[in-house]
Amino acid sequence: MAGLGIALFTDEHVYANLARALRQRGDDAVSCQEAGLVSRRVADDAQLVYAAEHGRAILTYDVIDFIQLDHRWRAQGRRHAGIIAVPSSVNSFGQLLRRVIAHLESTCPETQYDTLLWLP
Predict the structure, then answer these.
(1) What is the residue range of 23's domain?
(2) Which residues of the chain have pLDDT under 70?
């Protein structure tokens, strides 16, 4: 397995083929589309629930909503495998792929767990 072991779930705003590209290099990644959750009607909370139930950190551009979700989950004592916030300035597939790989190679699952971290 590539990286340090973070299992990843990409939300619907992330390039659908990012998870496939990560799997090709040995990472454990699933996209929202592959999980059958692609729809504007699937709430962010439902995506975080899916990721948490499957032990996956969620990668998202939807930073404001996920910051709020993280605070709400903490207040409710709920746990998740992590939220990786992507800055809006990371807007090309290649740039996103390089940054996600760097994150997966430098962050262990224990550090990511129950934490919202910004993509380097």
Answers:
(1) 8-118
(2) 1, 39-41
